[in-house]
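PROTOCOL LOG
Step 1. Enter all chains and additional molecules of the complex.
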Amino acid sequence: MGLAVSSAHAPMGIDASGRLNSQELIQIYRLMYLSRRIDDREILLKRQQKTFFQISAAGHEAFQVAAGLALKPGYDWFFPYYRDRALTLTLGVSPTDMFLQAVGAGTDPASGGRQMPTHWSSRELNIVSTSSSTATQVLHAVGCAEAGRYFSNHPDAASRVEGDYRAFRDVTFHGDEVVLTCIGEGSTSQGEFWEALNTASNRKLPVIFMIEDNGYAISVPVEVNTPGGNISRLVANFPNFHFEEVDGTDPEQSLRAFQRAAEHCRAGLGPAFVHGHCIRIYSHSLSDDDKLYRSAAEREADAMRDPIHKMQMRLLRENILTPEQVTALEKELEREAAAAADRALEAPLPELATIQKHVYSEDLDPKRASFATEKAQVAGSTNGKSASGKGSAPRTMADLINACLHDEMARDPRIVVYGEDVADASREEALSEVKGKGGVFKLTSGLQAEFGSERVFNSPLAEANIVGRAVGLAVRGMKPVVEIQFFDYIWPAVHQIHNELSLMRWRSNGAWAAPAVIRVPIGGYLTGGAIYHSQSGESIFTHIPGLRVAFPSNALDANGLLRTAIRCDDPVLFLEHKRLYRESYGRAPYPGPDFAIPFGKAKIVRPGQHMTLVTYGALVPRALQAAQIASREKGIEVEVIDLRTLSPYDWDTIATSVRKTNRVIVAHEDMLSWGYGAEIAARIADELFDNLDAPVKRIGAMDTFVAYQPVLEDAILPQPDTVLKAITELHAY
Ligand SMILES: Cc1ncc(C[n+]2csc(CCOP(=O)(O)OP(=O)(O)O)c2C)c(N)n1
Ligand SMILES: [Mg+2]
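Step 2. Run joint prediction.
Step 3. Record the structure below.
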């Protein structure tokens, strides 16, 4: 009886052959029973209104303990879901830490009181912060496995480097680590689940997909979510997988399955799929009542398969423990759970002053001066053109983005570039005879040829896959610089961007972060781009805490801001206006491999004293055109401010200018209503009211989509004339 739960994993040493011995069976029972007692104690606390949410592992304990025992905490990696109490207990999360989550204590090590209970996180154990979103974690697991493989192939890339994000993203790897990810059967309906199977299978990644099938997704039975009612049957044809389907209420059977799965993964043969038929002893959560949708007969039948009872019966039947010993053991564990709860109830609450902590990196601020190498720029050493956009001749925005990617990939071996069509040619044998695709806009051209297919590759045509994997890669210390082919198709990835990428740091109270870069061609003015190749929508992303948003208007800014995006320690949405890629406006010579521009620093692209015009992106050249005409024809001098980054944005430059001019227009290409300008205009009205001689004016697209016919497109999007009209009106006010 002497096996301590906190060291549960270490002494097991169960080999894949032979039966479990008595001590091992008792150990398993201890973990299962303790998990159930913690759930029951939490339910009590919730009923006493000392905690605020409860969801249990009841009925899943055997399957979860088995998974935990088959793997190595702190060595393997874990992407659990909200029901994995017995798993995490087995891995080494203490009962006290679980109750600290439940009460929302400031000392809750998983989130500092920010997340619901059972939303796991432990750096020490390699348990990556869990969200409530049902299937996002499986893609993180895939990215994590890719990172492990990359570092074992390129151990030098793991070195700590001062001067950029690498100083704060420590890397550990072993070469044969396995990544476990867990998911309920209902959540296998999510596209992200299938997108994860796709890449795990294709890349033969060491990921174990653990399917905890309790037959229900809240009130929805399995056959509604899964055609035919059995997920194993549907996935059976994915190549490279090892498949197991077991009785998840039987810990021994489950353990053997996980051991075989781990062996397959460690040997580099590919991923594994372990499907356990569990039961849900209680309702979905304490906010649910399963009597509303399950028959009494069905609930009773499940209760008969309760893994706790079955295991207890086995210990008695096989004379491993006497009834008195079982009672004594259970009492001991009950006391342990109660004592842990009492400790947590005395823990300090989170401090209100910490609320904003870890929204962004506390270590490396992209606004900081070290990113301001703008003035120290040096022209490239060679004259004229080069394939990578270097040289001293004026280059387009597309060229200088491409040049930045080349430079940064050469400097930082942790960068990988992937997305749809970004490779030169996936079939490498073609590379010697073809020029290469390198992106539909050619922005990643030549990267695969220079850095190889391991660092530059095509993803499946699945946007959530692109961003979800980036989260897993970045969590391990890699720097994914991924591309979403068109802003118009970012929407399948928004779940990952909003709920995972941007939130990872805050929800884990700084323990984890996912500083990936997402490059996205955006915007219209394409003449024929139409609805699905012209969209804007940046304000949707500036509304997400934790995410930085850059939107350059010219080649030099694009080069310097992308460099900062890559070197910084926050996730960045890097918006590249398609119409500006190859414009003659804003071309510049190659500024050298260390040219960077700090975030949150606007540029006054035209000084003036009569009014301020705040803008960014494709409206910058249009506003300049209007400002020139206003000056020439009407003597109105407009100060044009290019914000360059939208989150953070440069309030000081706006405020200083408005205090000088007392009139302001905020202009953007996106639709007027609820657009980015609404926030800026509101803040100006709020904080600079006394400095204004006229109302704040806004310019934006009509509140509709962008049409195909150029006559319509011209009318829908703001034009230089639109800006000129606003300038004239505001001047006359
Ligand atoms: C993306 C998303 N959609 C909906 C929900 C709400 N929700 C939480 S759990 C759940 C059911 C999940 O069922 P299953 O995957 O079978 O896991 P189980 O809870 O049964 O273990 C739903 C619909 C959510 N958390 N995330
Ligand atoms: Mg379920």
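Step 4. Note key features.
Confidence is low (pLDDT under 50) at residues 1-11, 378-387.
The two ends are 85 Å apart (CA to CA).
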